[in-house]
C-alpha cells in the first residue's frame, strides 16, 4: 500500500454540531484529553470563557491567537489522525460555522438530554444534509433528569428526519443514573461521577435476565432496562453501517461529557465507523483522495491576525495528494502559480512531519487578501471544487456612513470582506444603500470595527426589517422582469452581482412564491 493510501485510511476529519450549552466544549476537551492534546484542551476552555465575558470586538481580537489554534484541533487516537474542525457557536456563530461543515467528512451531534433537538442543531443539520454527511449522535447530560430516551430518539427522528439506531442505552438518569448498556457488546458500563470508565467498571452481561443485573444496578433499574431492551428489539432500527455512511441513519450513544462518561465508547465508535476522506466533486469531475496530484479548497478566511501586517490565513482542506512545504500550486481563479511556503500545518502534539500533510488535513495559508472562500488550488489541472457556498443570511443592517466622502473606501472594504466571507453585502435595486447580511449578529460588530481599523471608514449601522434572503433564478426573462417590477423594494444584488430577494419572513417568501411559481428561491449560492 502506498504511503498516501495509508495516510488517508487513518484520517478522520469532523466537526461537532450542537446548540449552545449542549456540551460541545466539554466533549471537545474530553476528546482532546483522550488524544493526549492537553494544552489544546485548556485553550478550548479559555477561548470560550473570553467570548462569554463579552461580545466586544476587541475581546474577539485578543482571542484571535487562541482561536486560530482551536480552529483545527488535531489529535492522535489509537492508530488514527483526527482533525476536529471547530464550528463556532454562541456569539461567534456565523457563516463560518456552516462553511466549516463543507470541509468535514463526518459530524458528531451533541444533544442535551433535557432539551432534545434545538434550533441551531437543526440549522447545522441542514448543512450536513447538503453533502449527506454521516452523523454520530451523543445524547449528553444523563447525570441530570431529562427526557425519556425513547422520546429523545423520536424527537431526533421527527425534527431532523434521520433514522436513529441506539448503540447504547442509558440505565436511569439524573440521581438514579447507573450507567449505560452497550447493545452491541452486551456489557454494562457502570457510572461513577467524574471518572472515565475503567475496565473494572465494565461488566459483560450476555443475559439481561440474570440476577447479576439486579445486584449491579438495583431491582428497579434492572426491571426498567429489561423492559426497554425488549421494547427496543421490536421497535428500534438495527444499526446499518451503509445507511449511516449514506447519512440516512445516525447511531446514538448516551453519556455525560462532564463526567467523562461514555466519551471513550463514543470515540472508539467514531474512529471505527466514521469515513476517512472521500471523493469530492468539482465542476468537471470527481477527485479521489488517492490521486497523486495535490488538490484542495479554501473554506474559511481569518483576517487580521496581525493588524500591522494585514495578514490573513486561508484555511485550506486538502482533497488529494500530498502537501509539502514550499510546493508550487496553481491558483486557478487568478490563473497563476503561487508558492505554499508560509503555511501553518495544523498538527498533533508530536512535532514530527510538520512539513507535509495529507488528504483530510487542513493547512493555514498566510496571504494578503489574494485568497477567497472557495478558491481551488491544484498542482496543474484546472479544477474548481463545488459545495462551498454562501449561505442565506438571517440578519440585516443598513450601513450609515458618517462621512459621505468615505464612500470609495467603504466600497473597497465591504467588497474585500464579502470575498473573505466575513459578511454579505447587498445593493438594493432602489436607492444607494449598502445592506449587510449575516448568519450571526457578531458579524456586524466585526465588520464595523474592521471598516474603521483597516479601511479608515467611520460608519454605523441600523437594523432593517428583513429576516431572510434568497438568491433568485428564473429561466423566463419576461417572468423575471415582471417579478423585479413587482418586488423592487425587496430586491438587491449581492457582492458578486447576483439577484437576491430579501423578505421580512417565511410567510412573505411563501406568498411571493405563490405569485411567482416559476421563480426559484435558493438558500445557498456557489461562489463564482
Ligand atoms: P457548549 O456551549 O455546547 O460548548 O457547552 P459546554 O460544554 O460549555 O457546556 C454547557 C454547560 O453544561 C456547562 O456548564 C457544562 O459544565 C455543562 N455540562 C456539559 N456536559 C455536562 C454533563 O454531562 N452533565 C451536566 N450536568 N452538565 C454538563
Automatic annotation (TrEMBL):
Instruction: State a single Pfam family of this protein.
Output: RF3_C
| PROSITE patterns for this protein | G_TR_1, G_TR_2
Q: What is its main location?
A: cytoplasm
What SUPFAM superfamilies does the record point to? EF-G C-terminal domain-like, P-loop containing nucleoside triphosphate hydrolases, Translation proteins
Q: Domain (Tr-type G): give its ranges.
A: 9-278
Q: Name one GO molecular function term.
A: GTP binding
Chain positions recorded as GTP binding sites:
18-25, 86-90, 140-143
Q: Where in the cell is it found?
A: Cytoplasm
The UniProt entry, under InterPro entries, shows: EF-G-like_DII (IPR053905), EFG_III/V (IPR035647), G_TR_CS (IPR031157), P-loop_NTPase (IPR027417), PrfC (IPR004548), RF3_C (IPR032090), RF3_dom_3_sf (IPR038467), RF3_GTP-bd (IPR041732)
User: Taxonomically, which superkingdom?
Assistant: Bacteria
GO CC annotations? cytosol
A GO BP entry is: regulation of translational termination
Which UniProt keywords are listed? Cytoplasm, GTP-binding, Nucleotide-binding, Protein biosynthesis
* Job description of the protein: Increases the formation of ribosomal termination complexes and stimulates activities of RF-1 and RF-2. It binds guanine nucleotides and has strong preference for UGA stop codons. It may interact directly with the ribosome. The stimulation of RF-1 and RF-2 is significantly reduced by GTP and GDP, but not by GMP.
Q: Which NCBIfam families match?
A: prfC, PRK00741.1, small_GTP
Instruction: Give the UniProt family note.
Output: Belongs to the TRAFAC class translation factor GTPase superfamily. Classic translation factor GTPase family. PrfC subfamily.
| Listed HAMAP family | Rel_fac_3
| Name used for this protein in its record | Peptide chain release factor 3
Q: Which organism is it from?
A: Desulfobulbus oralis
What is the name of the gene encoding this protein?
prfC
